[in-house]
Amino acid sequence: MKYRSSEILSELMFTENRALYKSMGFSNRDLDGPLIGIANSWNEIVPGHYNLRNVADFVKKGILRAGGAAVEFGVIGACDAQACGHIGMKYILPTRDLIAFDIESMAEAHRLDGIVLLGSCDKIVPGMLMAAARLDLPAILLVGGPMAGGIEFDGRKSDSTSVSEAVGMLSAGLISKEELSRLEDYAAPSCGSCSYYGTANSMGCAAEAMGLSLTGSSLIPATSSARMRAAETTGRAIVELVNGGITARRIITRASLENAARVMVATGGSTNTFIHLSAIANEIGVDAEAMMAIYDRASEAVPSVARVNPSSEYDMEDFYRAGGIPQVMKELGEDLDLSCLTVSGETLGENLEKWSHPFEVDRRVIRSKEDPFSRSGGLAVLRGNLAPGTGITKPIAIDPSMHYFSGPARVFECEEDANEAILSGKIAEGDVIVIRNEGPKGGPGMREMYFAMKLLYGRGLAKKTALITDGRFSGTNNGCFVGHISPEAAEDGPIAAVNDGDRITIDIKNKRLDVELSPEEITYRLKHRVRPPKKEYKGILGLYAKLAASAAEGGMIRI
What we know:
Layout: H1 6-9, H2 15-22, H3 28-32, E1 35-40, H4 52-65, E2 69-74, H5 80-83, H6 92-109, E3 114-118, H7 124-135, E4 139-142, E5 152-153, E6 156-157, H8 160-171, H9 177-186, H10 199-210, H11 225-244, H12 248-251, H13 254-267, H14 273-283, H15 288-301, H16 316-322, H17 324-332, H18 348-354, E7 380-384, E8 387-393, E9 404-412, H19 415-423, E10 432-435, H20 450-458, E11 466-469, E12 480-486, E13 503-507, E14 512-515, H21 519-528, H22 539-547
Parallel strand pairs: 1-2, 1-3, 3-4, 9-10, 10-11, 11-12
Antiparallel strand pairs: 5-6, 7-8, 8-12, 9-13, 13-14
Helix pairs in contact: 4-11, 6-7, 7-10, 7-14, 8-9, 8-20, 10-13, 13-14, 13-15, 14-15, 19-20
């Protein structure tokens, strides 16, 4: 078989390339077989990536056993959690595109035959999936797996975000500094992606539903030996994909993207999956309007069959033991397109027929389609005069009593001002907090309003206030929230016209987000508003501010 790498490794004029590989110990046998890249986001900053150095060794073992040669290279991987609440979060969403560019550059420059995408966490996984779709090489994603749950706190197993909630509790005098310190020590007891159903785990699960990860691999705990066995199997599978000529775009299709969207709705995945799936879809020519139609169909047709933190007290290990994504897909059955091809070389339906799990299905975590937690899905798209494009929310993480919420606006021009107001007790019951100028262009970078929601929770206001923003939310947020409001304030969206005291209504059942203003008043205010001082950024933030697509379009760098 003639491999793509043969272009630069077998022809006489490229003999120097063989010499350079041999300088690193590669043999003729290595260079005559498929050359498999391992794009590894391992680092010592992010717990979700901390175990990937060892995982990569088992991927290599599988590649070598299948007759391939493994070439590993590094990929950046920044941590959403560590970037929350400060300027660092502006950089997080842009890194998704940098990761895609990085992998594209390495794979093309070195004519790799296939690639294993080894990563975890919020923007790393979608960036890797964007690269896979763009390159259209044989590709498999393998995540590092979630961390263990922490000590019990506030009625459930704690996680890293419990610490932020506890900061709010401390400010309200509900806990002591000693309790906070103990929680800090034991809330995150191992490496791995966060133990709740945030964006990191959601995107790993979405990739599995899409068919670009091996069935059952996304939720294996980071510290489990099964994670290493999955890595070795992944290494063998990528060589089989190369030899079989199965490339990423045979797997990432409109139908498989809809499968991913439906699984996210059924499980209450992160709201951020909307922008990430849209960005991946863009790489295969599926436009934003088509993706929005996919989301709308999914949110209307797919029931909620799984509940995981922040929608319940059960964490990712509980979800894994309950059956994880394969069990969810089996419950959904014909609500999915089971004919979609996967990285096993077989269809999704064939994979599910063969799949077995060592644990009993836990109906406290995963229910059947006939007896769901809710007939409506866990994610929803809201529209109205405040969100003519999109507003994204997560009904399954919102108390049913708050599925209709109406109150006066409290407007803030940035996240920091809102956080200060919450901590200092300036937010009252019934308020609708509006945080604007945090969209893709206006931020720039579309920051997460993570701290604001956690501080509201800690101060006992999660079920008494609401928050809307043209920024994003973390997958761990609960309370009443609507994000991704499009058009954003920086593009003269209606959110820029809201003043303190304007009545805002969130109506999840009817999928509406409205402000009590006439079209004429909105137009007048937008025409005469005083814009906040424009900040000039250099480097990646300057580039992103100029080229970023809207939240409704996936927030990617638009070329």
